[in-house]
Amino acid sequence: MPEPAPPDVTPAGDDPNALPVLEPFRASEPLTIGVELELQLVNTHDYDLAPFSDEMLRLMSRIDLPGAVVPEMTSSMIEVSTGVCRSHAQVREELEQLRSALVRSADRLNIAVVGGGTHPFQQWHRQRIYDKPRFRELSELYGYLSKQFTVFGQHVHVGCHDADAALLMLHRMSRYIPHFVALSASSPFVQGQDTQFDSARLNSVAAFPMSGRAPFTLSWDGFRDFFSRSTRTGVVRSMKDFYWDIRPKPEYGTIEIRVFDTPLTASRAAALAGFVQALAAWLLHEQPFVPREEDYMVYTYNRFQACRFGLEAVYVDPVSGRHQPLREHILQTLAVVAPHARDVGASEAIEQLAEATRAGVNDARWLRQKQGAERLLAEVVRQASLRFQQAA
Amino acid sequence: MTDLTATWAAWLTPSAGLPTVQWSLLLALAAAAGHLVHRYMALPKIVGYSAIGAMAGLAGFSGVAWPLQGPVLFFVELCVSIVLFETGGRIALRWFRHNPMVLLQSVLEAALTYAAVYAALRWFEVRPSVADALALVAMASSPAVLSRVVADVRAAGPVTERALVLTTLGAFYAIALVAARVGMLQREDTHWLQLLQPVGVVLGVSVLAGAGIAVVLRLALRFMNPASENTSILLLATIAAGTALASPLGGSAPLSALLAGLLLKQFHPRPWSWPRQFGTAASLLVMLGFVVVALVAAQQPWDPMLSTTVLALLGARGVAKVGGVLLGNPGSGTSWRQALLTGVALSPMASLGLLLVSQLSAAAIFTGPQIAAIGLPAILVLEGVGAIFATYVLHRARESSEGTVTGGIHA
Known about the structure:
CATH architecture of chain A: 2-Layer Sandwich
Membrane topology (chain B): Multi-pass membrane protein
CATH architecture of chain B: Up-down Bundle
Protein name (chain B): Cation:proton antiporter
Main location (chain B): membrane
Helix content of chain A: 40-55%
Oligomer: heterodimer
GO molecular function (chain B): antiporter activity
Number of domains of chain B: 1
Distance between the termini of chain B: 70 Å
Structural class of chain A: alpha+beta
Organism (chain B): Ramlibacter algicola
Helix content of chain B: over 70%
């Protein structure tokens, strides 16, 4: 899993008019994990977004680090990723090294690094595109939508033995999208306003035509057919064009969960990855249910509830239709996966999340509390930057 | 013409008087010119302000005595103080601990500028005391021009930030050294310990005044919202009071404001949102500053014989500023290209330069006219041309918002 990889489209021979072909799924060690974090770069004057990604990349390239540091669509953001990790402890260690290096580099440039799914008051139309052909191309295609999309997420990859196992894991994991959203939610403010959502970031993602859930198929052949149909229409050219909540990543041999807001701390990001790993271990070893297309009947409603109300959301069981507080279901899930968390070394992560869930605390709530006390979003960003600076 | 003016003056006596009407019309014209050059020629608005000021000066507009004094001196000081307060508040001292090369860049560019300008003027056989005075003034760039340009093109990024900080530090050195130089001119002692006394007095009083302003604002911010209009008014009024008090007490008003901003930033690290609230009142003051600079500079008798000397000063200063920034660049976190652009962004001179030349002219009875004869044309050129350079540089650095806006697809 996340090894440096070739593009996820294999050109069919030398014919430039040939349709893209789906990359073969590379097997990877099951239950390995990898984390990507998109982070905000802000100035230390008024704490607005600051276009310093080139300078950060230059300084970070001089430090020996695990994983990778890459530019993102706009020049006020940066993405860091761990290497292939086997445990929560390893993720935490690698994220901690990256965090420490980011803080040191930012200090040298007189800027700050901040987590969170949105910058609370940045003006989207003032952001600048990073000078890279793909980013320019996407900006031209999506126009206004791309300008609205200055948001920051955490992606967690889970290694899968083969392609069919990846699809099975993907559709099982889909039941837990609300859990992931509520636990990571950190984007209540957009354009200077409280959106009343805990995760407003996902509303920006929803505007894209290829967003939402992946098509329901449990066989890679079926998925390849779907991909071929999509590319034939010319709407899709590669897997990168799908902005699904969870998508397969054939070149890594993983599924990639993309609904997390970037948390305010590296510690929380590692804990979320630990939860995903423990959940995956439970699903893999106990095969507790077989996913069905009908599961998706309540998918959008559950997702909306989690975005809107966070840990206070209602969760609708896709099988029984029973309504219960999401917080309760998260605690039940954490209890169920706890033995598997022990096996994969994620007990600490599970306990950390259980404690926060019992207290009803996520980063969105923290941000709102700070704004309630300070009544100045720039000060909230400053305090969030101090929170990011703290070692795990 | 004189009769007509006298008639107007007599007719206007019951109101604010003829000078008020003249200044109001001048500012109205400057505002319109600023808008037009920006809208139709893509030039910085300052070029329009300067052009109107210069035309008024060349046409013999009266009302500004030289060296500056009275209300005009106060307004120019206030304009410089407001800008320096804000730029002083951008300086986080902890940055220099994490990146001492920035401080070195600043010291190098200022020292090199002094040396280069002094040497160039001496090459043209300008007397040492005049060369020394002008070399000190040349160290200062214009925080007002740079801030205005940054606001106009909505710039943000490494070059913008670095240029603003280097400009502020340069202003700090120049104000302190010129104030000390003026103090020395007024003494007959030659012993170095006694010569240090004026430096101590200027710095001491300025630090005290700056600390006073910072304390008042810190106390106010305990119960006032920085985003409120009332806080902005309190801020402006406090700076104005500090400006009025610092100079008579033996300090420097702009230096006090700069130190106030710097101290407030250290003891009150919360974000500064009031510059956005400064609004039209502060903009008007800053614009007035640009007009006065051009007006005063253009009013001076132009001596074509001195033009080569002025050009030499400008050339030496430009090369030294770029050279100093480049020399201190390794390890400072910016690329060579960015360092080059930062050096060019330091070229503007405006109201701060005018204030320093005025101070020196007032203190040096015999050499004052020569200091003004070389210094003022240089400032006039660098107000307009420097603003154009700074705008160009921010575009080249891709740090201006114009034409580059968009967002991202990634999450």
